[in-house]
């Protein structure tokens, strides 16, 4: 089965996010660098690679199939086999990335010989992004290049694991790091220092209050299991010893938002609360400095405009549409660029990021069948 061979080759490369991805890029290009495929290697500012491969008339709106080539680390996990060697265990193909989401990439690459034989009236574009697992950092650079390379696609299928259920909406996310700097001193003389932990603690309480307001007053979107946007302080660190006034404190805060709210707008409320805390501290003669750095950010996927594509995928796969999920994908970024997008891929999200991640061979076959049919319905 050629698709299994492709998957074995893909998972053999530990393509971790935030690290050079030349090896996985070369593996994918080895399957795409053939006559009839227009292939673009697109560098990110960090020196990593996105890929765009097009087959058919690129000046017409066509269909985009998209997936990320990076995988999360296996560090600290106990695997029963080498996580970077595809191992067949009963009816499971086990390796890191089989479900999330090199299985879909294998199906995309397996489709290429068939696409080259099809009389395509509209193009098919295959997009491979980097650095998805650290906040969808790679794909915005790919999307920014699309207008100069191809006509805007009429639709995009992002193949994150969904058991081939078409997913129409998901939440957005923004995570930030906040650093606070006070003034150190000996704990026996508090007046000589400014304790950086105290404003961090006050900000954590403000984050709790903002989150509680969302839960109580919305806005709400009943398509989601948790129908409101959420906000939390996930990490707080500070101080070096019990007898030293802490000079530094650090917080990590995350917002996950329904399509009606922007993650940046929610974090702006946190920033306003920090400004108020800072003003009060300055008035009391206890000034501190602070910075906010965005670590990851991507928009929610709105269902607006993707009804037709989701309905067609449901007809093809026989799986009912899922209206909304709480995790995020790159689909929100494609939709933000004006490309109607749906999440639909093989495998189950519950297997992702875990030891002994796997996919069933029949899930790969079903995905390959879906891709051939969606191309036939859209591009012939």
From TrEMBL:
GO terms for molecular function: acetylornithine deacetylase activity; metal ion binding. Residues 169-278 form the Peptidase M20 dimerisation domain. InterPro entries: AcOrn-deacetyl, ArgE/DapE_CS, Bact_exopeptidase_dim_dom, Peptidase_M20, Peptidase_M20_dimer, Peptidase_M20A. It comes from the Bacteria. The keyword Cell wall biogenesis/degradation does not apply. GO terms for biological process: L-arginine biosynthetic process. Gene3D superfamilies: 3.30.70.360, Zn peptidases. SUPFAM superfamilies: Bacterial exopeptidase dimerisation domain (SSF55031), Zn-dependent exopeptidases (SSF53187). Its cofactor is Zn(2+). Keywords: Amino-acid biosynthesis, Arginine biosynthesis, Cobalt, Cytoplasm, Hydrolase, Metal-binding, Zinc. The keyword ATP-binding does not apply. Belongs to the peptidase M20A family. ArgE subfamily. This is Acetylornithine deacetylase. It comes from Paracoccus seriniphilus.
């Amino acid at each position: 089965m050629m698709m299994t061979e492709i998957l074995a080759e893909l998972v053999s490369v530990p393509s971790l996010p935030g690290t050079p991805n030349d090896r996985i890029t070369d593996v994918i290009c080895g399957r795409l660098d053939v006559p009839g495929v227009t292939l673009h290697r697109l560098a990110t500012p960090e020196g990593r690679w996105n890929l765009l491969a097009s087959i058919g008339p690129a000046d017409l709106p066509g269909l985009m199939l998209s997936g990320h080539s990076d995988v999360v680390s296996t560090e600290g996990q106990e695997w029963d086999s080498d996580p970077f060697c595809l191992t067949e265990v009963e009816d499971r193909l086990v390796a890191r990335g089989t479900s999330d989401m090199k299985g879909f990439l294998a199906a995309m690459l397996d489709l290429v010989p068939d696409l080259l034989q099809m009389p395509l009236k509209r193009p098919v574009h295959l997009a491979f992004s980097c650095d998805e697992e650290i906040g969808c950092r790679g794909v915005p650079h790919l999307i920014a290049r699309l207008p100069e390379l191809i006509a805007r696609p009429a639709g995009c299928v992002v193949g994150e694991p969904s058991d081939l259920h078409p997913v129409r909406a998901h939440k957005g996310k923004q995570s930030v790091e906040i650093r606070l700097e006070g003034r150190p001193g000996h704990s026996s003389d508090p007046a000589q220092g400014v304790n950086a932990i105290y404003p961090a603690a006050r900000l954590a309480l403000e984050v709790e209050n903002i989150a509680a307001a969302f839960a109580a007053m919305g806005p709400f979107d009943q398509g989601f299991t948790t129908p409101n946007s959420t906000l939390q302080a996930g990490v707080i660190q500070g101080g070096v010893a019990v007898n030293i006034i802490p000079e530094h404190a650090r917080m990590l805060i995350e917002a996950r938002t329904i399509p009606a709210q922007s993650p940046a707008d929610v974090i702006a409320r946190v920033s306003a609360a920090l400004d108020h805390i800072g003003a009060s501290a300055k008035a009391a003669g206890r000034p501190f400095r602070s910075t906010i750095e965005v670590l990851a950010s991507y928009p929610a996927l709105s269902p607006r405009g993707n009804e037709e594509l989701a309905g067609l995928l449901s007809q093809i796969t026989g799986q009912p549409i899922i209206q909304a999920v709480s995790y995020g994908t790159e689909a929100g970024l494609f939709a933000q660029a004006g490309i109607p997008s749906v999440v639909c891929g093989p495998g189950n999200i519950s297997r992702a990021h875990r030891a002994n991640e796997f996919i069933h061979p029949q899930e790969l076959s079903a995905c390959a069948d879906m891709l051939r049919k969606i191309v036939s319905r859209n591009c012939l």
